[in-house]
Amino acid sequence: MEENVVLTARGITMTFPGVKALENVDFTLRKGEIHALMGENGAGKSTLIKCLTGINDFEAGEIHVDGISGPVKNHSTKDAQEVGISTVYQEVNLCPNLSVAENLFIGREPMTKFHTVDRRSYNKRSQKIMDELGIAVDVTQNLENYSLAIQQMVAIARAVDMDCKVLILDEPTSSLDDEEVEKLFTLMRSLRDKGVGIIFVTHFLEQVYAVCDRITVLRDGQLVGEYPIADLPRVKLVAAMMGKNLDDLAEIQKESIEDVSRNPLEISAKGLSHTGTIKPFDLDIHKGEVVGIAGLLGSGRSELARAIYGADRASSGTLSVGGKEVKIKEPIDAMNLGMGMLPDDRKAEGIIGDLSVRENIILALQAKRGMFNLLSRAKQEEIAARYIDLVQIKTADQETLVKQLSGGNQQKVILARWLATDPDFLILDEPTRGIDVGTKSEIQKMIVKLAGEGKSILFISSEIAEMLRTCNRMAIMRDGEKVGELDHDLTQENVMKAIAGGEGTK
Amino acid sequence: MKKDSFWKRVTGWSLFLPVVSLLLVMAVNIIHDIAVGANPLSFFMITLRQTTGNGTILYGRIIDILNRGSEVAILAIGMTLVVSSSAGTDISVGSVMSLCASFCCMLLAGYGVSSATTLACPLIVGILAGILLGVICGMFNGTLVAYFGIQPMVATLILYSAARAIGLLLCNDLIVYVRNGTFGIFGGFLGVIPTPVVIAAICILVMTLVLKKTALGMYIQSVGINGRASRIAGLNSKRIIFLTYMLCGLFAGIAGIVASSRITSADSNNIGLYFEMDAILAVALGGNSLGGGKFNLAGSIIGAYTIQAITTTLYALGVSSTQAPVFKAVIVILIVAIQAPPLKAYMKRRNMAKQVKGAA
Ligand SMILES: Nc1ncnc2c1ncn2[C@@H]1O[C@H](COP(=O)(O)OP(=O)(O)OP(=O)(O)O)[C@@H](O)[C@H]1O
Ligand SMILES: [Mg+2]
Hints:
The complex is a heterodimer. Chain A is α/β, with parallel strands linked by helices. Chain A has helices at 45-52, 77-82, 100-105, 119-132, 148-161, 178-193, 205-211, 234-242, 301-309, 331-336, 346-350, 357-369, 377-390, 407-420, 437-452, 464-470, 492-500, and strands spanning 5-16, 19-30, 34-38, 60-65, 85-88, 166-170, 197-201, 214-219, 222-228, 265-274, 278-286, 290-295, 316-321, 324-326, 339-342, 425-429, 456-460, 473-478, 481-486.
């Protein structure tokens, strides 16, 4: 093995039924570098990572790890940890019904001298780890009580707490806000300086240029190339990933922000709340309007949307839809009023993993039609085909199980599910999570187009720039409370200021 | 890309496991027949036979299996749905069968009467009331599981222990006989065909049609796979789980009537005894995961008849009815082992290794 190299993979080939996920891919990771692994949705990034960590049994190729002679063959994440590879997978795979501390130490619990688990010591150590990362959690609470972002941070904390030579992070920042991302980057840099090699997957190009030293690009399961960061500016990176030129920064900005404030009201919430998660708020959304919700992690962005949709039943207040006061007890009531909600936690609340792509796409539409009004098979196939095409879902065929798709493609399936119901009011909670740059701008365009057709949209994203490009107005959230709105001078700076508190609100 | 080999396609077929088990049982029968010098195909022979009355009926081992396996087949329909939606089992079905039988016979004979030749109420009323009681039991279980969030095993344990006892109470601790020709027909013969087979066939047919013509099947599986996501997508997860338990109760009621009609009496202590185990086993044998989610009704039905075939075969081999459960237990262990993830992973790795060698 070369000097300074900590991990190499040579000629990795891996096929799934109907898909050649990786074909003869080489990958080299050096000591003390942060190495971005880039590619479109379904390019094979997660598959390559799972080959390195032993989750996938690849058919051909070899993996070498520094300090170990001969090819390494891992059979499980545990094997991989033993050779010094620590991983955060794309889908958080911790145990929601265990405490944060238990999740941090599962499989490596500190023992007392009586060979029982030393609960006190690990609770203390866990609290210290989380405090050092600056994450405010009570480590004795169950993980499921915390947002996806916190869960992601716990997964990261668990991985970095283990002594490792190689740290793999597969889209660790997909649910994080700028602040947490910055914390993670500081952590990554300090590990790099200690000589750890880090593999970093993300669809946020700015993040690549902020921390990475080198980039490897995959396209359709094949290696495009490996580049030092300086040699691959943004435009070239996008071209390498997509195989064609596209200026992803080309503005999608609404030509001129149309004044929709005189349109009739679609949604009007007065004093709506959900005990424990969101304090009473008022919110009006006009027909044809895109309203964004901005706020820090845990400020109640998703909770506000959930209270409107009935995902969490409102504990006070009134809601009017199209001028009529309504009562929503369950999501289906909201759907029958023309609403739809794409939830932020894809795995827990989005996909039905063991059903096919077709069934996942038509599910909400079918639920709306009712049990006795089954869509014919031909109709189902037609709808599925239309949306697979429209949002560019990469799948072997309609009958592929949705859990077999890449993360970004699963996200597209959920989006397709809601578009298929043709809602008048659509809540999109992090719709572009895990979606590649090309498709991301397509989705933003789609949002603007839907609004143009008179639909109303509530748009939540941790990426402010994305909301700026599409929203007419923004609601500002802080500590589980709606603290104000911004309806003019929507700029990154103003929004940040409003989020942070102080002027610019009300 | 290379086409999957024939072998791989066959082993990947959803009915692989149930069909193989059924074939295995048949093979054992054929070998046994050859060994004792009987016609090797006697297992499959169906003949017409005169009854002591003046009718003719179909007769043969296959007919016997289809006939005696009907109750478990009917139960397996409901059990399949319950397992799929709630990742749990309804262990009360055997007791509920007994309760429904007792209730029906009590109504037909009149309370406190132990043997009736004239009916105390119209036949149809007694039967429908029995089945309705099954539905009510199912609703009780469904409420506990879906709306109170009690673990299925614990929730159905209540009726598992109580239902049979309530049945005894209804029958005043007697075995109630309904010696009226028409009541016996549900467990007897319809022309040359055993009625239980016809009833099971109708139940299966109706359920299949419902699954094909409505979205129920998709709803149940969706809820079983991911209840939270199903709710957000507009399904009422609780109501769907409730519905599966209700259907399970319905089928338990029907099976109870059949079982009781077979012996033209309500023998509370024995009707449906251990049937819940057979029904659960049928679901597992049908290749369904007891962890819920996707289900395969055809598999469960084949599973149910396989269990009856095993029982019949064991008797044919001279195993006594007290020992038969031991053999069944061995079979269960085998099935569970085949489905166990470590073995599956091992097989997969072996397949993969072979392919790589082939490619090199
Ligand atoms: N378990 C599986 N079964 C079948 N096909 C799979 C499986 N896992 C991945 N694939 C396929 O392999 C290909 C590569 O998927 P992979 O998850 O590696 O993509 P990715 O680059 O991580 O994409 P994303 O950015 O969306 O996460 C996809 O076409 C996917 O459908
Ligand atoms: Mg991925």
